[in-house]
Design a protein that fits this description.
Structural class: mainly alpha
Shape: globular
Strand content: under 5%
Radius of gyration: 20 Å
Number of helices: 14
CATH architecture of the domain at 159-286: Up-down Bundle
Helix content: over 70%
Largest sheet: none
Length: about 290
């Protein structure tokens, strides 16, 4: 393998799209907390820590899954020989070290979240991935916590209610989508011997649990407006986001593929609601 192929393989290990998406979510969390302009260095450190940690977590997952990937994903970097298992492990450790270095510059709460997340990323493949529902819940927590991490980076231990609501809504919506995706993939998962939640308790029951959880998150979504954190602009965007996600959960009982795809759009719209809610506070009064 040439040096260029190795570099390309290392980049693939990080899943660049996931790295960018997670970093953007952390930025949104900081923006919702109102600290982007006030503490740009903390925002930059939080975004960098998130990107490095996600890249490290993806790389370590490929290291642990290398034997399975030789059968199921032979084109990935390790199976095709672009990166050696040892190289992937060393690369992951280096990325984790960079994430820790940036996290150490942040307030205590952000540092605590970073520490928990780093442990979760390492433990996911070896401990949680094969446990019905728990692997889904851990992924959901990690997605939602990016918002909370960004907010904690700029607010320390201060008022974080809007970010907490965003964390809950994003985590539950992600959990719902993860369960629906498991229903969608149930035949392939059975063939691979996996014990996902739909396999363990049945498809309908799994979808019902997902729908109930999402309904609870939707009920909580107006809280920033009720508390006075955001104004009517927030409600005008979060209401259709809630409607899209509830409709997607209902659609999942008929067509899981369509349902999980629409849930993703609802999640993006919900994140936009928080951006709009925060941005409206910055507009001068007329």
């Amino acid at each position: 393998m040439t040096a260029g192929e190795t570099v390309r393989g290392l980049l693939e290990l990080t899943r660049p799209v996931n790295v960018v998406a997670s970093s953007v979510l952390t930025f949104i969390g900081a923006f919702v907390a109102g600290g982007v302009a006030g503490d740009p260095l903390a925002v930059a450190a939080a975004v960098a820590a998130t990107g490095l940690a996600v890249g490290a977590g993806n790389a370590i997952n490929d290291y642990f899954d290398r034997e399975i990937d030789r059968v199921n994903q032979p084109d990935r970097a390790i199976p095709r020989g672009a990166v050696s298992p040892r190289g992937a492990l060393v690369f992951s450790v280096a990325l984790f070290a960079g994430a820790v270095a940036f996290a150490l510059t942040l307030p205590r709460l952000a540092l605590a979240i970073a520490g928990i997340n780093l442990l979760a990323l390492v433990a996911y493949t070896e401990v949680f991935k094969g446990l019905p529902g728990l692997g889904n819940a851990l992924v959901a927590y990690l997605v939602g916590s990016t918002f909370l991490f960004g907010a904690a980076a700029v607010r320390g231990d201060g008022e974080l209610v809007p970010a907490i609501v965003l964390f809950i809504l994003a985590a539950v919506a992600t959990l719902t989508r993860e369960i629906v995706k498991d229903v969608e993939d149930i035949e392939g998962d059975r063939e691979e011997g996996l014990n996902t939640l739909p396999i363990a308790i049945g498809e309908r029951r799994a979808l019902a649990i997902a729908a109930v959880l999402l309904g609870a998150a939707v009920v909580a979504s107006p809280l920033p407006y009720v508390r006075g954190d955001f104004g009517v602009a927030y409600l005008l965007v979060v209401a259709p986001a809630d409607a899209v996600m509830l409709a997607a959960a209902y659609e999942s009982f008929r067509d899981p593929t369509v349902g999980q795809s629409r849930l993703k759009y609802g999640m993006f719209l919900a994140a936009l609601a928080f951006i709009v809610g925060r941005a409206a506070l910055e507009l001068p009064a007329v």
